[in-house]
Each structure stands twice: as structure tokens, then as C-alpha cells.
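Section 5.1 Outputs to date
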Amino acid sequence: MGKYECRMAIGLEADDLMSIDQWARVKEGKLDTIICSRDKDLRITPGMHFGWPCGKQPQFGPRRVTEVGDLELKGGKKLVGTGLKFFYSQVLMGDGVDNIPGLPRMGPVKAYKALSECETEEDLYRTTASLYEGHYGPDWKAHMQEQCDLLWMVRELDEEGNPVRYVLWEDRLNEL
């Protein structure tokens, strides 16, 4: 810390701090930051991204990620993506690396088919919510919120400096 200009991420992971910084600039209409990381989870945050090649993993970008983002099914079985499309695909599939279960029997192909044609956050939410409700019944919302809490890259801190969790689309409408 004495040699480089850096900040400590207290109460957050460093990737959340990167997401917060980039989101603040994107909200100002500026694309003067770039997240350079191999972490695919950061690619849900809008703005510029770059991931260097590593072993069998190819280079990503440099590329601008939009809010809605995109999905691609590679080799017929691996789902890659950006933005909210990738976030919601993980809400459906889970993330084995991070021990996040998602929905049972929801693999990359099913998630891609469910979300690839969605064009707005509302479309993504409604499609995902419908699948959660179909599996969990009346308790679906609590299960979906838990997955969102585990997968969301923090974009903002509240007045006390605490991370702002992802608020389900429907709940944001009810707050208005």
C-alpha cells in the first residue's frame, strides 16, 4: 500500500469495488474506465472490459458491455455472456464454482433458450420469475432473491457505506 495508489475493500470483495467504480462512471455517461480481469462475473457490469488469455481461456475484449448484454452458447453446451442477460442466466443455472445452486436441471442450453431473445430487464425478470415460480410455487420470490443476492456484483453503496443489493424488478416498480 505504501508503493501503489490503492484502496482497501472493507466489507466488500475487490471485484465489487471495481464494479462500483465503473458503474459510477457509466451513470455519468463516461466510458473512461476499463475493468481488466479474468473474472467472468464482473462482465455483468456495464462499461468497458478486458480479460487476457490464460491457458485455454481466450482473450475477452476489449469490449463494451451494455446494461442488457448478450448471451452466446459456445460448442452447444457452454454459456457465455454479459450484462443482465448473463446475470439472469446465472440466477437460473447457478454457478458451481461459487457453490450457487440455481434451479435444478437448469443447464446452459435451457437458460439460453429461455433468455436469449429477451430484450429488456423486464423480459429477463419475467422469464426468470416464471421459471422460479414454476419450480418453487408460492415461495419462489424468496428463492430467487437469495440467488440474486449471491450473484449480483455490487454497483452502489448506501449512505452508510453498505452494499446495495439487487432489488427484483417487480419490487422496484412497487417502490414507485
